[in-house]
Amino acid sequence: MISSLCVIPARSGSKGLKDKNILDINGKPVLAYTIEACKMSGLFNNIYVATDSKKYAEIACDFGAEVPFLEPEYMAGDAVPSTDPVIYFYNQLGKDVELLWCMQPTSPLRSVEDIVNAYKIIENNSICEYVLGTTIIDPHYFHWALQDKDNDMAELFFGKEMLVDRSELKDIVHRPNGAIKVGRTNSVLKSRSFFGENIKRIDMPEERSIHIRGIMDYELCKLLLNKEV
């Protein structure tokens, strides 16, 4: 098995939805769903949570993750890319691993199978440097995309190019959903991101790709997870 470092970035300073990483769903904090999925995948010897909060750290440890240290305040700002805590943990822990994983805590519907399939993709393709969890984009986002003009009006962002029936679109477009990001260590360290060259996708359905950003996402996750119980 390829050696891995799994990091779940869970800063405490969310402004859109306060403390979204530890909100309750079905008697468990949001963060716990990602920890448990990572544990059940069987891919990781250790699951680390990167957080600036003692409270978050205690919760993470209660569900089987490890928080060997709190990340510094500058690492927990709004503008800090999620890759940075992963690289910080890699440097601080000094572990010699071949893969770095960034597991978004606000994607509680990601499945164990999704994680395992992402690993299989990068394990079986030596050219592949990164694997990202993705979801098909509804073509209507392109058909009817508008942008504002200087005269206070709006116009089609893509002009008439995308203004065709979806059956006439040549390519299906996918969006990274943030739920799973894995890359070869040297590639991640070089690009300081999971969006370098030679990316492959692990496709996930819309219902497993929900990222909790606001109250609507949170309520939708509650509804879907309650149906699974």
Commentary on this structure:
It is built from seven helices and ten strands. The strands form three sheets. A six-stranded mixed beta sheet has the order 4-1-5-9-6-10, sandwiched between helices. The protein has a two-stranded antiparallel ribbon with strand order 2-3. It is of the alpha/beta class and 229 residues long. This is Acylneuraminate cytidylyltransferase family protein. It comes from Lachnotalea glycerini. Pfam families: CTP_transf_3.
Q: Please identify which CATH superfamily of the largest domain we are dealing with.
A: Spore Coat Polysaccharide Biosynthesis Protein SpsA, Chain A
Major β-sheet strand ordering:
4-1-5-9-6-10
- Beta content comes to 15-25%
Distance between the termini: 32 Å
C-alpha geometry: globular
- Assign the CATH class of the largest domain: Alpha Beta
CATH architectural name of the largest domain:
Alpha-Beta Complex
Class from secondary-structure proportions: alpha/beta
